[in-house]
Each structure stands twice: as C-alpha cells, then as structure tokens.
What does this fold into?
Amino acid sequence: MILEKIKEIELDKWGKIQFNIVFLNLYIQFKRLETMKKYIFSFILSLCIGSLSAQTLNQAKKLFDNGEYEPAKEAFEKLVKRSPSSAEINYYYGACCYETGDVEKALPYLEKSAKRNYIGAFRYLGKAYADLYRYDEAVENYETHIEWLNEKNRDTELADAELSEILKKARMFKSVEKVAVIDSFVVNKTQFLEAYRIGKETGQLIQTAGGTIFENELGDKRIGSEMKDSLMQLYSQAKLLDGWDKKVPAESLNDSCNINYPFMMGDGITLYFASDGEGTLGGYDIFVTRYDSEDNSYLRPDNIGMPFNSTANDYLYVIDEFNNLGWFASDRNQPEDTVCVYVFIPNESKQTYNYEATDPQIIKDAATLRSIRTTWTDDTKVQAARQRLANIQLADKENKPKGEFTFILNDRFTYHNLQDFRSTEARNSYRQVLQKEKDLNQLTQSLQQKRLQYGSENGLGKKKLEPSILDLEKRIPQLMEEVEKVTLEVRRLEIERLKR
It folds into this structure.
C-alpha cells in the first residue's frame, strides 16, 4: 500500500521536496505500525505463556495433592527454573524433593520459600531438619508454622501432633547412649538370624514366617510372634511332656500395631521386643518391659532410645550375658532386601553423652552409628569383646549341624535335612512346608513394606495401595493356617513311621 502511494507521486520541479516530505511521513507511519505489531505480538505471547504456566502450575499442584510426587517433582523442577524467586514454586519443589527421599536437596528451596514466609515451607523444613537430626531447627520451624496457622485462623491439629513427635525425638537425641559397637554384618533379611552368634546359655532364636521365637536355655518356655487379625502379636508357650501347651497371647502388650521379635533375659522378667506403634521414631523400634507376676501382665514398655532406634526399622535386641555381648538388627541405610546386624558391649547401667558439652556432629554420628569405630573409647575393652565374638563364631562353626533347616519332631529328634525323614510321605509333605514358609515370609515382608509406604502416601497413593494390602491381609492368615496344618500332618506321619 505504501509503495503504491509512492509510485503515484508526480515529480515536478518541486517533486523532490514533495517526495521527501511524503516519503518521510509514510515511513514514520510504517515504523509506528511495525512497532505496534511487535507490541501486540509480545502482549499476546506473554498472555499465552502466562496462561500455559498457570495451567502447568495447577497441573503440578494437582499431582502433588494426589500424592504423585515423582511426576510432580519433574513438573516443578521445570517451573522453578523459569521462576527461581517464586516462594510458592520453591515450596512445592522442595516438598517434592523431600517426599521422594532427597532431603538434602529439598533444604535450599524450602529455606528460600520460608524466607518469603510461605506457611507450608516451615512445616516441610521442620520435617527435613528432623530427618537430618537437626532437632532444634526442626522445632523452631514447626513453632513458626503453627504461629502462622493461628494468625490465619487455620487448623493446627496436624502440625501440633507432628511437633509433638519431633519433640519426642529431640529428647531421645539429647540422651544418646554411649555404647561400643564392636562389629556389624550386612545380611539378607530372610536369613538375618544367621548373624546372631549367641551362646547356648542365652537360649535359642528361631525364625518364622514374618517373625521370630525365643526359647529359653532350659527349652521349657517360648515367647514368639504370629499374625493375628492382620497384625503380628506376641504369645507365650510352656513345654508339656508330649509337646507345647496352647499359645497364650500377651494381652497387656498386644495393641493395634505390630509387636514382634521378642527376647527374654535370663531373669525371666525383662522382655525386649519391637513395635511399630505409638512411641516409635519410625518403622519398628525396640522397647523394653518387665513382667509383673502379681498382676500376671507386663509393665508399660519404654523405648530404649538411640542409637538402637532410628527412623528406619530396628528390632531383635538380644543380650548374651554369658559372653557379655549384645545384638540388634536395623535396616537403616540399607537396600530393601538387606539388614545390618550390630554387635555391641552392653552397659551395666545406661551412660549418655553430655548434650550441652559435646559437638553436635559427634552426637549425630553416635546416634546414627555412621561409623562404629567412633564408638570405641576403650581399645582394651573392645579388643577383648571382639575376641569373645571370634571364639563364639569359631565354636558355632564347629558345632553347627550341616543342614538345610531345623525341624523339631519331638523331645528326642530334630531334623536338619530331608534325608532325616523315615516316612516318604512326611518328607514330601515337608517339602510343601518349606515352600509355603518361603512364600509366607515373602508375603509378610511385602505387607509390612506396603503398610509403611501407605503411611507416607496421600490421596491417590493410598487408594492405589489399598487393594494389594487388603489382598495380602487375607492371603497371609490363610497361608499360615496351611503351614500349620501341613506341619502337624508331617509330624504325625513321621512319628507313626518311627513307631513301627
């Protein structure tokens, strides 16, 4: 259009002047039009980008609210690069990092968000600091979080409950027991009892599907765990002339949680066990209680604290008084299918670190057992304990029967190989028992893992886990009944064969 108007200009003697004036005016109009087009384009583009960003942000927040933290983390990672100063986006990305297990990475984003007083950031900062054993900072952030909730007239019930748990952990952290851990063994979870080299004077540990049984030195009393109403619960049993009496539930201990891995001291009164219920740091924790013979019940259990307990699963605390050695298992810092068994020197009385006068890092290392060598304060005492452990391992190796399993037939016979069976029918049936026990152990571990995962999920994550948990809760008791039924039949068949 502009070019056509230029062509229409008649170049007379004033032509050059007229042309220059007209061209200049047209050029100015053209540049204005070009600038306006750029402005309109930029404005429309910014609207589109803003709309797209808002849509992406809403989608990412929806994933987070549904407990889908991995895909939410990917979305927020892109958003935080576009808007590195956004308090909201820094909060969500930091929270996603925390929920997916990357606690250290979560800190700078949550700290940046908290500086802008984003309320949720204080809560997640408290969680992250607590997981890193920085309890003073954890408490401070939770208190700030609750103050903001009160100021905004929001419900503080959840935050109050979580702060209470952190304060409990902080108290334990301020009373970490001084204990010399002389060795540790990383073993498969399904065979972790093989690492417990306790003397015969202490008793016998028997691994079952999902739990353990402790039998005293005389072999006339047992305390074990079994699945009842989809939970592991404790029971005791006395020896009769022709077998074991019926199982008596430990009603004063059994609760709406898993109670497992019992061990009774030689006094017949002091009982250690593991529980994943109230009063734990996370997962299974080790507790101690004492039997009250007058009331025929156990006293209120106490959490034995750090370093024996952690935010992971800690269980089967055993004291070999004859050899002055202690044992416990933990899956802290371990892959899913392994567990670490620690060997330590028991204290005659509890000795704790001076929290106020000790470097916090030293206390943290002691609480987490980051390095067992740092727990060695008396080399002579440690070397003597390690020698006792070596002697037990050597004697155990020499005396241990070479076999595939331990099957107690009666007071006279204990089988360790399929070839020990006289009855062909009993032998074949016991093959089924071994396979069923293996399946049962796998199902029980799967159920425990899914329950722990369920507790950390929200919304959609819980819904996805519910069908598999319900299915396992139904299948495990059925399989346990099958194992018990077939085992009784094996014992009957073999005893009949021996009588001939």
User: Anything to note?
Assistant: The longest helix spans residues 15-65. Confidence is low (pLDDT under 50) at residues 5-14, 47-52. The chain has twelve helices and 17 strands.
